[in-house]
Amino acid sequence: MQEIDEILGRFPDLGTLVGEVKQLKARLGKEHDPNTPGASALTTAELRLLPLLCTHLTAPELATELLLSPHTIKSQMRSIYRKLDATNRHQAVTWARELEIIDT
Q1: CB within 8 A of 85, min separation 6: which ones?
Q2: 13-27 tens-digit pLDDT
Q3: In the chain, which segments carry CATH 1.10.10.10?
Q4: Among 9, 22, 39, 80, which is disulfide-ready with 101 (CB 3.0 to 4.6 Å)?
Q5: Please, are residues 91 and 52 in contact by the beta-carbon 8 Å criterion?
Q6: Chain centroid to CA 14
């Protein structure tokens, strides 16, 4: 959001983008509660992995795909589950779809 604010500061007349940014800020303001699971709790690496959890790929296959170690993938998966209050991959994906973190 800071980067978006800087861009809008330099280019304040960006048409409909200005309104969309206001809507996004309002939505994030409502959803940004550190005690509520959601996208704001996830790291960039976890957000990169999350859509791949929808696939049939195993943790070692995900590691190969993302050029990471299987241990790193498993660690990120556990962190995603914890942050989304999920106990397994299916729950994490379902909850992420409900929160609109990933597409349905």
Answers
A1: 37, 95
A2: 877 887 888 887 777
A3: 39-98
A4: 39
A5: no
A6: 26
